[in-house]
Design a protein that fits this description.
Two copies of one chain form a homodimer. By secondary structure, chain A is of the alpha/beta class. The first copy, chain A, contains seven helices and five strands.
């Protein structure tokens, strides 16, 4: 169930960065998913891309890399997570652990993560339904379905 | 709601390792929570302890460090996660992403994570209600309540 919403400029910039991160990962031979964390005043405090292949790390989804890069802090609930793809249970659980209020989802046509959980926890989801994000996943699914299956534990 | 269950020897050994990991973390100035991943034939394939303080990493809960240490693999559903404390939403979400079938919880008196979610996803929870695990958290809560609050996003 996708309801496309126009993004605020700061969130659009963050999604653009997340897309660039995803492309960077693909160029490295990795999984093309990217994320950013944005403060309430529109500053991008961290970016990241999936690093499963690059670091041999099964927890290195883009969102987790982004949370890691944001470091130790106490202002999580003021941050918005922006991701090119609907976050899985691990990444959604992390957003819930840190009581984020908003998550921006680049697309959820290729994969629908734990959206219902996040909504039940009071996280506002914003669906960008971005064609670039859809194209990133289409290429992955066509060219490296094995990597994708591994990434979501299938 | 804690229903204490006797552990199979392989799982008891894994819990003992997890407790030792937790003590190691405390001796390093870190958060005393430890985990292990055990194969269906009782082999401990990875251990880990919370590394928030040690690595300045907000995703480094013991369970996540353990998943990371287990590396890229496709046999997740045959592994059991053993942790000294009831896993939070992030760590429970990871157990769900990788379709684990069993999680052993050292104690859930100090903190109750996303147990209901895991159960709804069909994960069998085993509650050890281990006094050593309770003591580890009691000491943390008495001596470093700030660190604990940070670790669970409070």
């Amino acid at each position: 169930m996708t309801q496309r919403m126009p993004l605020q400029p700061a969130l659009q910039r963050a999604l653009d960065r997340a897309v660039a991160e995803a492309e960077k990962s693909w160029s490295e031979g990795g999984i093309p998913i990217g994320s950013a964390l944005v403060s309430s005043d529109g500053i991008i405090v961290a970016v990241g891309h999936n690093r499963r292949v690059q670091d041999h790390d099964p927890t290195a989804h883009a969102e987790m890399v982004c949370f890691r890069a944001a470091g130790r802090r106490r202002d999580w609930s003021a941050l918005t997570l922006v991701s090119t793809l609907s976050p899985c249970h691990m990444c959604s659980g992390t957003a819930m652990l840190y009581r984020l209020r908003q998550v921006v989802i680049g697309e959820n046509r290729s994969f629908q993560g734990a959206e219902e959980w996040m909504q039940q926890a009071g996280i506002e989801l914003t669906f960008a339904d971005d064609e670039r994000c859809v194209a990133l996943m289409r290429r992955l699914l066509e060219e490296r379905p094995d990597l994708w299956a591994e990434d979501i534990g299938e």
